[in-house]
Amino acid sequence: MRIGVVGAGRIGAHHAAVLASATGVDELVIADTERDRAAALAARVGARTAPSPEAVFDGGVDAVVIAAATSAHPELIVRAARAGLPAFCEKPVALDVPGTLRALRETDAAGTLLQLGFQRRFDAGFRAAREALRTGRLGRVHTIRAVTSDPAPPPPAFLAGSGGLIRDCLVHDFDAVRWLTGREVTEVYARGATGGAGAAAFREAGDVDTAAVLLTLDDGTLVTATATRCNGAGYDVRMELSGELDQWVVGLDARTPATSAEPDGPPPPDHPWTGFLERFGPAYRAELAAFVRAARGEAPNPCPGREGLHALLVAEACETSRRENRPVRPADPADLTEPVEPAEPDPNS
């Protein structure tokens, strides 16, 4: 199987290295708007290059992995659909709802596979917690607490195109909560704050460096989700599921960047998690292996692109709540569904 990788930045390079040794992958074709960067990555992983991202779709590949800048995702998804190619795309489908709907309509019209990159669905801890919850080991779950903390703010240039802390980081928690519980979010209340040395960059981007959200699920379960760009102790992703019978914690291990205040508590980790690629390395490998199987028709799509719309609508409601300081009900995806329009002819075909 020949797979095209569009985007040779940090996540694209990681995906290319994983795919280069993945079962069922015979060849990689790498492209990036910076041709030198694509060539350097291709040399490292034993791949060949395409002269441009657009050329990948005409280069005889069997599937594509989209790891380009977020702003490019919708158009690349559309190109994959019009080329009849299965596609894996890092989240999000798009930064806004109209762009997401357009990309999903094109995929639906073409009947092609679109798998979205919510890697937590493939993490061993999250999967074990889902099984425990679904089999009733926790009893009635009344409270969920989610934490996502980056060790340091990203460069100011990243903030402008990230969609903001809620859309960029907390959207993972929103998806994980839906996937774990099988429930929908019926109301959100969100607050944000900014301080410290990087405050000016966040304010200029209309963003915050810390956010807290209260979600209410359709069965009454309460969920708190917090995120920050300023967790100097390390990269921290945890989720606590509290039920009437038991309480499970995802992400609590020897590398969790937290120090116990108790005299007999565990010591701080010697090597705390430093970032998402390290913390979720096995999950990324499992995610791409699942995509290869799905693209070959050997397994169903484990994370359809429409899942991104659900999570985005929760994030959009949170942004409205944060700005207007009030509870907000997320839009119902069914109310946004538009008739599938025939794909316009591709002028490059």
TrEMBL record:
<dbReference type="InterPro" id="IPR055170">
    <property type="entry name" value="GFO_IDH_MocA-like_dom"/>
</dbReference>
<comment type="similarity">
    <text>Belongs to the Gfo/Idh/MocA family.</text>
</comment>
<dbReference type="Pfam" id="PF22725">
    <property type="entry name" value="GFO_IDH_MocA_C3"/>
</dbReference>
<dbReference type="InterPro" id="IPR036291">
    <property type="entry name" value="NAD(P)-bd_dom_sf"/>
</dbReference>
<feature type="domain" description="GFO/IDH/MocA-like oxidoreductase">
    <location>
        <begin position="126"/>
        <end position="244"/>
    </location>
</feature>
<feature type="region of interest" description="Disordered">
    <location>
        <begin position="319"/>
        <end position="349"/>
    </location>
</feature>
<dbReference type="InterPro" id="IPR000683">
    <property type="entry name" value="Gfo/Idh/MocA-like_OxRdtase_N"/>
</dbReference>
<feature type="compositionally biased region" description="Basic and acidic residues">
    <location>
        <begin position="319"/>
        <end position="329"/>
    </location>
</feature>
<dbReference type="Pfam" id="PF01408">
    <property type="entry name" value="GFO_IDH_MocA"/>
</dbReference>
<keyword id="KW-0560">Oxidoreductase</keyword>
<protein>
    <submittedName>
        <fullName>Dehydrogenase</fullName>
    </submittedName>
</protein>
<feature type="domain" description="Gfo/Idh/MocA-like oxidoreductase N-terminal">
    <location>
        <begin position="1"/>
        <end position="117"/>
    </location>
</feature>
